[in-house]
Amino acid sequence: MHAFPPLHDRVLVRRIDAEEKTAGGIIIPDTAKEKPQEGEIVAAGPGGRNEQGQLIPIDVKPGDRVLFGKWSGTEVKIDGQDYLIMKESDLLGVIDKTGSVKKAA
């Protein structure tokens, strides 16, 4: 587990720069490269709770590559590294090993 475990249904994401993407990965045009919208899950909280208080586990795990909205998350610096903390619901999808996008549950 990472030194910063997120709470509830939040995830800690490391941004992936364009040069780290695979050949089958998603390509962002130069005109839209303000900030990449792809990242890797570093740590995930245990999940949120429903109205009955039951734990709803998170669908992503450390190592998953994900897509997120341009303005999603809160930027934080931990041990000199830049990360984003966001709710699982801010994630748009998980990129599988072949480079295609899976729909978020």
Protein architecture, described:
This protein is an all-beta fold and 105 residues long. It is 0% helix and 39% strand. Strands 6-7-1-2-5-8-9 form a seven-stranded antiparallel β-sheet, with no helix packed on it. A two-stranded antiparallel sheet has the order 3-4. Strand 3 (48-49) and strand 4 form a beta hairpin. The two termini are 24 Å apart.
Write out key terms for the chains shown.
105 residues, mainly beta, 7-stranded antiparallel beta sheet
Strand content range: 35-45%
Number of helices: 0
Which strand order does the major sheet show?
6-7-1-2-5-8-9
**Percent of residues in helical segments?**
under 10%
What's the total count of β strands? Answer: 9
The biggest beta sheet is recorded as:
7 strands, antiparallel
Distance between the termini: 24 Å
SSE pattern, N- to C-terminal: EEEEEEEEE
The residue ranges in which pLDDT falls below 50 over 5 or more consecutive positions are: none
The chain-level structural class is mainly beta
Basic shape: globular
Average pLDDT, to the nearest integer?
Answer: 81
Radius of gyration: 14 Å
